[in-house]
Amino acid sequence: MRDHKITKLLIPAVLLAAASLFFGGCATVPRSASLPAYSIGGVSYLSLVPLCESRDVDWNYDAFAKTVTLFKGGHTVSLLVDETLVLVDGREQHLKYPLRLHQGALAVPLRFKEQVFDVYFRPPQAPLPVGSGMRQASLVIKTIVVDAGHGGKDPGAIGRSGTREKDVTLDIVKRLSAVLKSQGYRVVLTRSSDVSVSLARRVSIANDAQADLFISIHANANRVRSLSGFEVYYVSPNANDYQRALSSSTEIPASLARYCAGAPSSNLKAILWDMILTNNRAESIALGKDICNTTGGAVSARIIGVKGANFYVLKGTRMPAVLVETGFLSNASEEKMLKNGYYRQQIAQAVASGIQNYARNCAPIEAHRR
Prior knowledge:
Elements (H helix, E strand, L loop, with lengths): L12 H13 L11 E4 L2 E5 H7 L3 E5 L4 E6 L2 E6 L4 E4 L2 E4 L5 E3 L2 E5 H11 L13 H7 L2 E6 L16 H18 L3 E4 L9 H10 L4 E8 L9 E6 L5 H8 L5 H4 L8 H31 L6 E7 L2 H5 L4 E8 L3 H7 L2 H20 L10
Parallel strand pairs: 10-11, 10-12, 12-15, 13-14
Antiparallel strand pairs: 1-2, 2-9, 3-4, 4-5, 5-6, 6-7, 8-9, 13-15
């Protein structure tokens, strides 16, 4: 389940045969759209496999981790057997009743179909939800933490004419914050003045704010002064998500703890973190591409693209996170541009437009949380 390109894996035919026998002998409840419906402990359940097949939804079952992942239309829904946690595109939702594996058949509560499945895997003929664009996006992306690189005693990169990275980043962040707030987002800054903020503190601010996105703004530098360009980084593939998950398994956020029956084991915690972090990397790449695309059409800088890197602030955050290198202060031409307030405003607006484009592709998750 680490790659959205995972192909559909089938539960052995013998298990599906057992499921068919089980359906025939169970006390049934009214069927939904001709899907097998039955009762477990007095709760209405549906067979997951026929449900997925009815909407052409690809699915993967990891018997070792007891996780089920559904894929379609850019959406990913992950469930854990015997747990009420559901991750929709990496964000948590809560079901009253858990996914079950009963007599070899994967079964979901009827409420799952109504609350999650029908929302994200709509039938072709179904009308779109009322409202679109920013209205839907704001339901998903509510809080954005914006980080101005360096600050205080740490000036960051310094251009030949004395332009300091910490000043450039703070100005861009303030402009970006104003644009995002005007679009309806809640914005949290890791610093709003020329003060020192540790990397660990920046990560804590983002995690404590339960942010939906983390955007860190920087300006680049290199000994090769001819280098120039705008680029966006996400957490490197070398930063293994499962190892990050294991390092986080000593704790579990309150937002996840309430979905676990009893005291979750360290293995379960690691699985939960792995599901979240793997998804966050993919979402960070998508966010980075959207920012690069909008910036390319708005500023004169060369767009280098999206890259992976092991930046601390990207590894420690628990949400999609990117680090934006707005240009090279070591390059005379780009230093001159970054000294210009109008150019910094262009960058801020371009980054905000990239975030907006990314948000428009997100489903209205918050509206369906319980």
